[in-house]
Specification:
This is Vegetative cell wall protein gp1. This protein has 314 residues and is mostly helical. The chain has helices at residues 2-37, 45-56, 59-62, 64-97, 106-144, 150-163, 173-189, 193-201, 206-234, 242-283, 293-303. Among the domains are: 106-163, no CATH class; 168-305, no CATH class. It is extended.
Length: 314
């Protein structure tokens, strides 16, 4: 038991250091540079060197007690900055996936509704172009007996998928990518993913759960990186070179969020399609095959909470 607790403490300390302290310390260093140089001397290394030298010669920095207090203060401030960035990352994730955008405050809800309408119109236009190209290729094959060049059809399909995998219902690509999994499972298998997933998770193999957990953690790291871009952007009030740093963090976070969301959505859909039969076996539900819509109907009938009869309310 002691060995387990020791290993657990070491792991927690490593995560605390990696996720909070180190990024927080880097931000504190940048903030110190911003406060020291300001806008007028933004790229003056001599001014920075002189100021740091004077700080290093102060009594608080030359005594052991002062160094301990200074180190503790830096660690605490770095951890606090890391917690703030994680909190901002949670907000970024809520805004990026937008599962509840219809309940947002009125100005944000109006913006989201306009975004959904615009994305939906562009998606339908792209879908129309793809269908036209597909039908033209089919007519050419029927008329000449030769397959047309697949490049235009693939380009039209890729343009459609860049907008959304299914008809847009969220204001962002990432939100629609997750939502598309629910749409496909409902359409193809008559499954309600929100009801199904907690039950399916318990029967998934450890390797599958590990892959999905890793994708979730990658998404968490990506949105936290986006959260860091906010305090770096705030530093531009005092030091303009913080602006390209904030922009680089935001762009990198955007790319990582897209990649993590796409990976997570693929794993989510694959896990349902591959292991649905195992859940049915655990529940004793007979089925002709894991892809049959009848299986989805039977599972949903068993998994959905039933409405309590009248007179039994609390």
């Amino acid at each position: 038991m002691g060995g387990f607790l020791s290993a657990l403490g070491q792991k927690l300390a490593e995560r605390w250091l990696t996720l909070l302290v180190l990024p927080g310390a880097l931000f504190l260093a940048t903030a110190t540079v911003a406060a020291t140089l300001g806008q007028a001397h933004a790229l003056d290394p001599h001014r920075l060197t002189d100021r740091l030298t004077r700080w290093a010669q102060t009594p608080a920095a030359t005594t052991v007690g002062g160094q301990v207090v200074l180190l503790g203060a830096v660690l605490a401030a770095a951890a606090a900055a890391g917690l703030v960035a994680q909190g901002l990352g949670v907000l970024v994730q809520r805004g990026t996936l937008a599962p509840d955008w219809e309940t947002w405050p009125v100005p944000l809800r109006q913006w989201a509704r306009a975004r959904v309408a615009g994305r939906r119109a562009r998606w339908h236009a792209a879908a129309h172009r793809y269908r036209q190209q597909r039908d033209a290729d089919a007519r050419a094959l029927a008329r000449d007996g030769l397959r047309a060049d697949r490049a235009p059809r693939r380009a039209a399909l890729e343009a459609l998928r860049r907008l959304a995998a299914e008809e847009p219902a969220r204001p962002t690509w990432s939100g629609d990518r997750i939502h598309a999994v629910s749409v496909r499972l409902e359409r193809d298998h008559h499954l309600d993913l929100a009801v199904l997933w907690p039950h399916l998770w318990l029967v998934l193999p450890d390797t599958t759960r590990a892959e999905i957990t890793a994708a979730e953690q990658a998404l968490t790291r990506a949105v936290t990186l986006a959260g860091w871009s906010v305090p770096y952007a705030a530093l531009t009030v005092w030091w303009w070179p913080a602006a390209p740093l904030a922009a680089a963090l935001a762009l990198t976070a955007r790319y990582r969020i897209h990649a993590a969301v796409d990976t997570y959505a693929q794993l989510l859909e694959a896990a349902v399609r591959l292991h649905l039969g195992e859940l049915a076996a655990q529940l004793g539900v007979d089925h002709p095959g894991p892809a049959a819509p009848a299986l989805g109907d039977a599972l949903m009938q068993q998994l959905r909470p039933r409405t309590p009869p009248e007179g039994h309310g609390g």
